[in-house]
Specification:
The structure is a single chain. By secondary structure, this protein is an alpha+beta fold. It has 2 domains: 137 residues, Fructose-1,6-Bisphosphatase, Chain A, domain 1, CATH 3.30.540; 115 residues, 3-Layer(aba) Sandwich (D-Maltodextrin-Binding Protein, domain 2). The strands form 2 sheets. The protein has an 8-stranded mixed sheet, sandwiched between helices. A 5-stranded mixed sheet has the order 10-9-11-13-12, sandwiched between helices. Strand 1 and strand 2 form a beta hairpin. The radius of gyration is 18 Å and the shape is globular. The chain starts with a helix and ends with a helix. Bound molecules: D-MYO-inositol-1-phosphate and calcium ion (CA) (2 copies). One calcium ion (CA) binds next to strand 3. One calcium ion binds next to strand 3.
């Protein structure tokens, strides 16, 4: 597959940071059994991956701004371009030795995401997308699923933990959706949840209280694979409201309706 120069830069950065995460993930598996546990080790792995990404992306595109989960905002001289980066999405999975985590890189130009990479360094699944050019998994073009019935659908979600977010609201949402679908999943890495909607594995995904770096890349992937992504009011303020519903045209609409119902209940 012939990738643009821009995507090549992003893929090379993701692969380099991925090598570092993969080594550290191997170590985490050993640290599980130690008394101190792997928590400090994991936050160091996370920061290291972000430093690699910042370094590689800045080397290739000096001047672009950078918004990373670990290091915050780096203003660039080029005000129209910003990298939106999560060096390790799925930290809890990583910490527990569960190989469902990824590096997520989105490039924003004038408030529009124009390029995206999501890379799981353990499974070596590399998702890429560019505005107007489609979404790919490794070399294969992706399309959202063709399922049209909620009753056939597998839907992914994110849920609040440890006092974060509105548990009661989530339980109402869950109860309504649970009753109507073939399966519900909570995989714990929002970037991959979106990439998996693009891949047609999930028919839809929703989550509240996300951050821009969890979603930026995945949103473009869903849309470039023919899917729909909105905030929970059906609008476009996904990054501002920090919430997303994404899916195939039909399932997205149905799910949005159920979530509205839960909000009013
Ligand atoms: C988290 C994951 C998780 C989602 C959380 C995010 P992190 O990101 O995407 O699936 O439910 O809201 O914070 O902390 O692992 O980068
Ligand atoms: Ca994240
Ligand atoms: Ca993270």
């Amino acid at each position: 597959m012939l990738r643009s120069a821009l995507l090549n830069v992003m893929v090379a950065a993701a692969r380099k940071a991925g090598r570092s995460l993969r080594r550290d993930f191997g170590e985490v598996e050993n640290l599980q059994v130690s008394l101190k546990g792997p928590a400090n080790y994991v936050s160091a792995a996370d920061r290291k991956a972000e430093e690699i990404l910042l370094g590689e992306l800045a080397k290739a595109r000096p001047g672009y701004g950078f918004l990373g989960e670990e290091g915050g905002v780096h203003e660039g001289s080029d005000k129209s371009h910003t990298w939106i980066v999560d060096p390790l999405d799925g930290t809890t999975n990583f910490l527990h030795g569960i190989p469902q985590f990824a590096i997520s890189i989105g490039l924003e130009r004038e408030s529009t995401i124009i390029a995206a990479v999501i890379y799981n360094p353990v499974t070596e699944e590399l998702f890429t997308a560019e505005r107007g050019k489609g979404t790919f998994l490794n070399d294969q073009r992706l399309r959202v699923s063709a399922r049209r019935l909620l009753a056939d659908s597998v839907i992914a979600c994110g849920l609040p933990h440890l006092g974060r977010g509105d548990l009661a609201l989530f339980r109402r949402e869950f109860a309504l959706v649970q009753d109507k679908v073939a399966g519900l999943r909570r995989f714990g890495a929002a970037a991959l949840d979106l990439a998996w909607v693009a891949a047609g594995r999930f028919d839809a995904f929703w989550e509240r209280e996300l951050q821009p770096w969890d979603m930026a890349a995945g949103l473009l992937m869903v849309r470039e694979a023919g899917g729909f992504a909105t905030d929970l009011d059906g609008g476009d303020a996904i990054l501002a409201k920090r919430q997303v519903v994404a899916g195939t045209e039909v399932i997205h609409r149905e799910l949005l309706g159920l979530l509205k119902q839960a909000e009013k209940a």
